[in-house]
Amino acid sequence: MENMPAVKLGIVAVSRDCFPESLSVNRRKALVEAYGKKYDRNNIYECPVCIVESELHMVQALEDVKAAGCHGLVVYLGNFGPEIAETLLAKHFDGPVMFIAAAEEDQNSLVQGRGDAYCGMLNASYNLKLRNVKAYIPEYPVGTAEECADMIEEFLPVARALVGLSSLKIISFGPRPLNFLACNAPIKQLYNLGVEIEENSELDLFEAFKKHEGDKRIPDVVKDMEAELGGGNLKPEILPKLAQYELTLLDWVEAHRGYRKYVAIAGKCWPAFQTQFGFVPCYVNSRLTGRGIPVSCEVDIYGALSEFIGTCVSQDVVTLLDINNTVPGDIYKEDIQGAFQYSHRDTFMGFHCGNTCSKKLSFCSMKYQMIMARSLPEEVTQGTLEGDIQPGDITFFRLQSTADSKLRAYVAQGEVLPVATRSFGSIGIFAIPEMGRFYRHVLIEKNFPHHGAVAFGHFGKALFEVFKYLGVDDIGFNQPKGMRYPGENPFA
Questions:
Q1: What is the dihedral of CA 380, 385, 386, 387, to 10 degrees?
Q2: What are the φ and ψ backbone dihedral angles of 133, each rounded to 5 degrees?
Q3: CB 278 within 8 A of CB 244
Q4: Which has the closest alpha carbon to 464: 476, 450, 452?
Q5: pLDDT tens column, 362-386
Q6: How far apart are CA 419 and CA 423, in angstroms?
Q7: Residue 474 β-bridge partners
């Protein structure tokens, strides 16, 4: 998956001039050593040119980490630290910044070896606010070398998402389908986030698709599709058209990415797509997403944005699903009740027509889109990848602009249960603690659309920090029992 940044963090130690500089030097060395023992040393760069005590030191350190190709910055308070120089460093660094501080080592270091970084972190945070400078500060930002190494590792996925967004272009095709106003949101916030958007007509896409007829690469793509589908290749006659469409999208990405390094796509898939192209694009969408190029359905621009964030954080395939339907009572009683610690209202089915990567399905087969085929000839609805989603941990999340251009987000952790869905499409039975209340008081109350991004694993902590760093004030989550939502009726 190459459609995301490989992030290197520069570590710069700071020192207040009335404290021994050796405190910060030795603690920085210990931190780097501790990180290298536990994690990939290539992820970090130790700034050797100076310990930052003054504004001039700040300039030297800034030039050094830039020359070293650092994408993110760790400002490490080895002692109290100079709040002016250290916050100027954060201000002038072009990328995500983290602040952490050193704990005292032992009882023998409390005279000449006491650093007071616990106190210094308060001044640093105050000065960051004065300058309107964003910084990531862990839940408890003071620790030993080993503890600070863990904090840096937790910052990596956050930094990766933030760096990725700064070089992202979302390419969309066509307006949202009729009666899908929920997927329509102002693009103003994309620009505020530093994301570029290129909106195209689906007629432009159709023209590009026609130009790829007879493309010499089509047979090789078909072979790759056949290998991926295996025994699930139930519609072999449609593969050449799907291969032609895949090449159309990939060539469009390369021709239109411009100065941006990373791309996500918000694609059109109905109502005229099937009759004109002669298929549905679900399987191709799943294949591109599997390569790290998220493709959202139904021109869901903020869905594509959310998928990209999840891809960067998890470094894995994501998917976009409808928060779709309830689990029938008989399935709950037969397969869930007593076997899992979830109430019936904790469960629901996440579904989409066939856009989930085959790597995340327990089994898969190429089929037609049953819902569309109710009103169209079946032969023009071929191209869905159907199968039950693999059981395991998941994170459901979304970043969304409201109608009045305010950013909102939600994050909820749960799992896909190892329970057969007895249904169609790319689908799974999901369980999220207190989902019923979360559904009512976050998803409905906050006017979120029906599409949610799914990361395969528990990444709630990192995603929450990404949204905080981006300035999202309203981040919903599935609150536990005893924690009442603002609009929740206390007498219900």
A1: 170
A2: -100, 130
A3: no
A4: 476
A5: 999 988 887 886 877 888 888 899 9
A6: 11
A7: 408
